[in-house]
Structures are given as structure tokens and as C-alpha cells.
Amino acid sequence: MDRLTSVERALRAATPNALLDVVTVALMEQYGASRVELRMADYGMRSLQAVETVPFTTEPVLIHDSPQGRAFGSQEPFVVDDPDGHAVTVHLPVTIRGDRLGVLSVTMPEDRHADALIPEMQHLCDVLGHEILVAERDTDLYVLARRAARLTLAAEMQWQLLPGRACTRPEFSLGGHLEPAYAIFGDNFDWSASADHLTLTVTNGMGAGIEAALLTNLAVNAMRNARRAGLGLADQAALADQAVYAQYRGAAYVSVVLLRFDLATGDVEAVDAGSPRMWRMREGEVDALPLEEQLPLGMFEDTTYTSEHFRVLPGDRLLIGSDGVYESVSPEAEKYGERALARSLTAARLLPPQQVPGAVLRELATYRGSTPLDDDALVVCLDWYGRD
């Protein structure tokens, strides 16, 4: 374990842009590695992009058709033998608290490879993931590696607003995804977990382009400000409502659902202020969870919001979708939320919650046929485990 400690210290002391160099040197010296490559998942969760000084120098690999993608999808190390080269390549997922960042690939001589080394290398990947998140405050290196194409300005704002794409705790695991990933403008999600509660919000700002992104940024930060001031859920909605109305005077508004989970009991406090909707899978059965719909944030001055309650049980899966999901229509003019969304959720029942949003949105694209998305599409999936 001494060599692991020395590498951890070197990573913490490294400049933000040199993390991969430190890991590469350590793996070559300690494990005899001949090649080390770090790839980050792109915003669309379709490809893995190489981290390199000059972006786009190395061709990306597909998540759904590559050894690296297999490690990324399964979240388990995947070993590829090269008998002719007398070498093996170990692909290791780089993940932090359930948020899947990418894959580290290590090529080493076959006589140096041993199954006993893989846990050590996986530990290095976990440390690397932590350091990447810290380093992103000071360098664009890892952010640039995540984009397979240029983001619109609105999409840049929305992705930077997110707390991450996934989160895992002993009591729950959640994941979310936005489409079109490189041109999203009004949809967003946010969460915060304390020792006793999880607060989750799903937001849909009206309009398009930069105006929608500015509107959503205002609403999300107003709710964060209220939450961090210790206000209850209904008051968080009310404060955000006032902030949006003060800026737009009713000309623009934000639809949002706010949820607050008690981690000990599974009791959920909810405020439904607009269009995001929720479905629950319990013991294989999918049902819509209708909430009392109240006015969107900022539509009128001094709107009063009230909370309602329901309970989640261990094993429950919740799915929240924006109107760009459930209102989408097939070529036969049937809405996706009527029957197809429940079928998609059932078909994805064996996937972890981090992969469910992408699976549902891929099914949505197939459902629409040749018709492209004409609105933002957001899906958040949460699995509830509860406390013993």
C-alpha cells in the first residue's frame, strides 16, 4: 500500500493539468505499464474522448461498441489480452460517488499483470476521479475532453449549472441526462444531499436559446439560495417565484417539481409547480404519480405554494421527465407519455439508474422516427434503497 500512498500524494501535489502525467509515471514505474490513456465520457454519453493537450487529436471510441465502453458501462475493470504483443490492457472505470467520468486504460506486459493488481489500479482511478473534479476549477483540460462537438452558449450554461450527472449514497442512487446534449437550453436538474435529506429539483424554463438558459439559471440559483438559507420546500418555491417575477414580470416563467426525501423514513415532500412529471416502478409495475399541479414560478406575483407528501419504499424506482419527453408524439400522433414511456422504463429495469435516462431517451428517438426533437428532453431516474 506504500506505493499507493506515494501516488496519492503526488496527485494532490500535481498541477491541475498534470494529473494524467503523474498517474502515467506511477503506473510505468510501479506496474511496468507501457501505455496509459485517459478518456472522458462526452456530454451525449455516446463516446469516450481522449484527454490530451491538443483536443480531438485522437479518434474517440464509442461507449456502446468498444472495450473501454464495456468497462464504462459495467463499472467493472475489463481486461483485453494481446498474445501477439505479449501484453494485456486493463480498462478501468473512473467514477466519483456514482458519477461516471470516464475510463483509464493501462497496457502492461502479460508477465507483470496479475488479478491482485487490479484493485490497486482501481483505487488509483478513484483517487484520480476526485482530483479531476477539484482540478476542473482551474483548468479546461478535462472539460474540453468531454465534448465531441462545440456546445451552444445556452448548453454551456446549462451543463455548468448541473451538480453532476449522477450521485450515489447508501440510501439512494440517481442519474440524469439532457438532450439535445450539445444544444440544450431550458431544462435542468439539481440535487443536494445532507446527513438526513435529499433535495431534488427538475426544472423547465420556457422559451429557447440563451433566454431560456438565463431564466433557468435564475430559478435554480434562487432555489439554491433559499435551500441554503434553511427555508422549507414550499418557501424555496415561493422565493424562486418572487425572483423570477421580479425579473420578468410574468412575461416568462419556469416549471419545476421540487422533492425532499427523508433518508431515514422514505417520506417525500413535494411541490409541483408546472410541467415535469413523475412515474414510479414498484415490484415491476409502472404507475404515474400525479401531484397537485400549482402555478409555475414567476407567472404571477406572490404565489403561495403548498407541499404534499408520499412515501417511497426500498426497491422503488422513480423517473421524472420534462414535457419534451412525455409530450413527444410518434408518427401516429400518440404521446410518448401515454404508454411508451412506461414500456421503456420496464425495458430498462435491469439497468442502474445512471444508465436509465440515456436508455429512455434513445427509445424516445426511435419512437419519434425521423422527426427530430423540437424541445428539450430531460430524464432523471432515482432508485431508493432506504436505511436499514
Automatic annotation (TrEMBL):
Coiled coil: none annotated. Residues 169-384 form the PPM-type phosphatase domain. The keyword Electron transport does not apply. InterPro entries: Bact_Sigma-Reg, PPM-type-like_dom_sf, PPM-type_phosphatase-like_dom. Its EC number is 3.1.3.16. Keywords: Hydrolase. It comes from the Bacteria. Pfam families: SpoIIE (PF07228). GO terms for molecular function: protein serine/threonine phosphatase activity. SUPFAM superfamilies: GAF domain-like (SSF55781), PP2C-like (SSF81606). This is PP2C family protein-serine/threonine phosphatase.
